[in-house]
Design a protein that fits this description.
mainly alpha; single chain
Amino acid sequence: MSVLVLHILYIIAITAESMTAALAAGRRSMDWIGVCLLGAITALGGGSMRDVLLGHYPLVWVAHPEYLLLTVAAALGTIAVARFMHRLRWIFLVLDAIGLVVFTVIGCNVAREMGLSPTVVIVAGMITGCVGGVLRDILCNRVPLLFRSELYASVSVVTGGLYVAALALDWHHEVALFTAMAAGLTMRLLALRFNWHMPKFVYAREGQ
């Protein structure tokens, strides 16, 4: 059951991530190829980076090229409906939050199945959840969201940490999975609603 639900949520997540990336590409006046590339990189980049770092092959989109086609189709579809997207802003924020926690637990599972330590499992989850957005922002010449004050990477770490801790306490896998995702999703949505931020480090030399 948990595998089926995760798969459905993964499909929704990569579609939503590709569409939000397409909008970012449109703000930078990219051509259609750029829109498609940015959509695919954002949706699949985190999992690809994780697999490369962990030596986990084949990459997800190589084993399942239909995911690559789906992200390209979602990016192209966004071009057609872009004029209506501002009305769906909150829907995409919620879908992005769902994608973050889903990608995180999927990344954790990959590392767990490889027999890696809890620390590496949590880091693998964070890489899966966050790196796609980092790549999108770098390619759009923006400071990545991960390095700004928003609660994003911290949500991924909390989600992965709760998941690993629950499994260590011998919780049933589905209970551990959905408890961690629910906690991470709640944290992210509350952060968006109440504008919660991490402390900033501001350094300015005297005289400037």
